[in-house]
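Appendix B, Record 12. Input sequence as logged:
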Amino acid sequence: MTFLENSYQRFESKINLFLEASNWRWRVVVVSGILMLLSFFNNTMPFDDFRLFYEEAIVKKDEFFLYKVTRDRAQNLTEHRVYLEGASNNRVFRLTLPVIIKVLHIRHVSLFVYGLQLMLGVLLYFMLTSFLFELLNDKMATLLAMISLACIYFGSSFFIENCGYGDFYTFFFLFLGMYFRNPLVIFVSVFLATWCDERAAVASGLVFLWWWIAPTIKYNRKITFIPSWQMIAIVFGVIAYAAIRLYLMKYVGMSATYKEGEFMQMIQDSWRSFGFKFTWVLEGFWLIMLLAFGILYSTKDYLKLTAIAGGTLTMLFLGMTTYDSTRSGSYVFPMIFLGIMVVRARLTDRQLRIVLAIVALICFLHPLATKTRGVGYFLM
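Logged structural output:
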């Protein structure tokens, strides 16, 4: 037995022993959270935002950065206001959080929204653990997959995003649309996600793909074009959002404020660093996705390959049309779970664990681009 084989076997046996406890899911949550923190604080830049948040929200008892927009929206949901900060002007139709603030009469928006975000983040980790175990049916593979997810923006946004963008809430509601099977819950989840961020209307298409493709992988069936109730619920959720938004634009006079030529300028600037931006979103999960693409191609399952690869690449390219490509591209996360399902169906338990161990290592060591302020080659 080689040194590497012996080392891996000892590593595997210790992990399996660690996960034998009845509370193994909580152990996965805690380990994933700790490694997320270690991966995130790989440079001193993140401390700046936390320091500013502390000074504004706690010392001055004011609202920090985009939480001010949430506060303003809660005071007047339909007001047309132009801000000096460009990021504040495209949040006119992001009304989920302002409505919650208004209904609950929250006075300190920054602390409430971020505090709730932290609590829901722990809940998301627990739900993700159960969700992954259902897909993988292997505790060690579940731990490795959770560590990987915790170390990319999708899984770390509940903690590291403290500026009020609200990305976590959008991810959370979209994931609820995958986690639960009840069509009514899915409809409400998708509807709320779209009012957190309009990008969720596009990302809902990937949740639609999940409900379309996942059962065919699980039961080894061919794709059919008969929609399930879950798929119908997603469509109606997006239609309801679009209808209400059009009503607000036509009859209430609400409209987002963008600088003239801003979209084309963002595309031009983003494509200068497309290589980094393309790989940064998925990090180590590119290994899973490329394996999934290869498996589907080798088995000549071209329809599933087109759906999964098409959904993945489309979301990543759309993400690269904005400055915040890591945040935008992270809406691709439903495709990660489809990729995991494809790989799970073809690899042995040992092979799957090794692949996920490599993915986890890459995701852990790879710096999160969203908090490095563009320093060096760490691009957003």
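The two ends are 44 Å apart (CA to CA).
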